[in-house]
């Protein structure tokens, strides 16, 4: 139905057209104008070149599957499938997912409502921002080492550093932040 709506002009979603062009391995210009060397789309008349450049670097769409507490260990609550939101990311992570930040322990860099893009298979390093799970509770922190022992540090100095134990695992490394206005 989406393709039909785009064909008859009822749906002019740039995101959908970009997705279609990617899936069909052609250009947006070809889909919009029927030829490769078409004039630039109308978006160039509205926005400057910086916005157009950003649109060209959207790589993938990922689901925002839940939220993560930035502050303390907290139970994980996932969104229902019919409530899933998808976001476009500029990081090359095909199997990633998004989480909404809750709390203020990662301020000033990460505010409540920001979306973090998590790569579940990325190798964490000292200084990486990570989503950590311990005893079925999760939090979002900066990974720091004291010798060989990992700790999870909030950016807000009002919160304590968290220790790891045998039930602690890193669920993924944060690769991108998306701030919605």
Q: How many DSSP H or I helices?
A: 5
Return the string of H and E elements: HHHHHEEEEEEEEEE
The CATH homologous superfamily of the largest domain is called Umud Fragment, subunit A
- The class by helix and strand makeup works out as alpha+beta
How many strands in all? 10
- Give the count of structural domains: 2
Quick check: average pLDDT?
Answer: 75
Largest sheet: 10 strands, mixed
Distance between the ends = 30 Å
What is the CATH first-level class name of the largest domain?
Mainly Beta
**Any low-confidence stretches, pLDDT <50, length ≥5?**
37-47, 49-55, 69-80
Characterization of the model:
This protein is of the alpha+beta class and 181 residues long. The chain has 2 domains: 2-56, no CATH class; 60-178, Umud Fragment, subunit A. Helices cover 19% and strands 34% of the residues. The chain is built from 5 helices and 10 strands, in the order H-H-H-H-H-E-E-E-E-E-E-E-E-E-E. Strands 1, 2, 3, 4, 5, 6, 7, 8, 9 and 10 form a 10-stranded mixed beta sheet that branches. Strand 6 and strand 7 form a beta hairpin. Residues 37-47, 49-55 and 69-80 have low confidence and may be disordered.
């Amino acid at each position: 139905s989406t393709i039909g709506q785009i064909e008859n002009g009822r749906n002019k979603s740039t995101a959908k057209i970009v997705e279609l062009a990617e899936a069909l391995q052609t250009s947006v210009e070809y889909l919009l104008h029927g030829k490769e060397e078409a004039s630039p789309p109308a978006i160039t008349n509205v926005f400057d070149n910086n916005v157009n450049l950003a649109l060209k670097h959207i790589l993938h769409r990922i689901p925002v599957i839940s939220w993560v507490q930035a502050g303390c260990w907290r139970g994980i609550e996932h969104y229902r499938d019919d409530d899933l939101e998808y976001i476009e990311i500029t990081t090359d992570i095909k199997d990633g997912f998004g989480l909404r930040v809750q709390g203020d322990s990662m301020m000033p860099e990460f505010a409540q409502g920001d979306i973090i893009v998590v790569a579940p298979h990325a190798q964490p390093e000292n200084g990486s921002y990570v989503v950590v799970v311990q005893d079925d509770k999760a939090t979002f922190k900066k990974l720091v080492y004291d010798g060989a022992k990992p700790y999870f540090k909030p950016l807000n100095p009002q919160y304590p550093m968290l220790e790891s134990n045998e039930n602690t695992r890193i669920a993924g490394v944060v690769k991108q932040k998306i701030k919605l206005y």
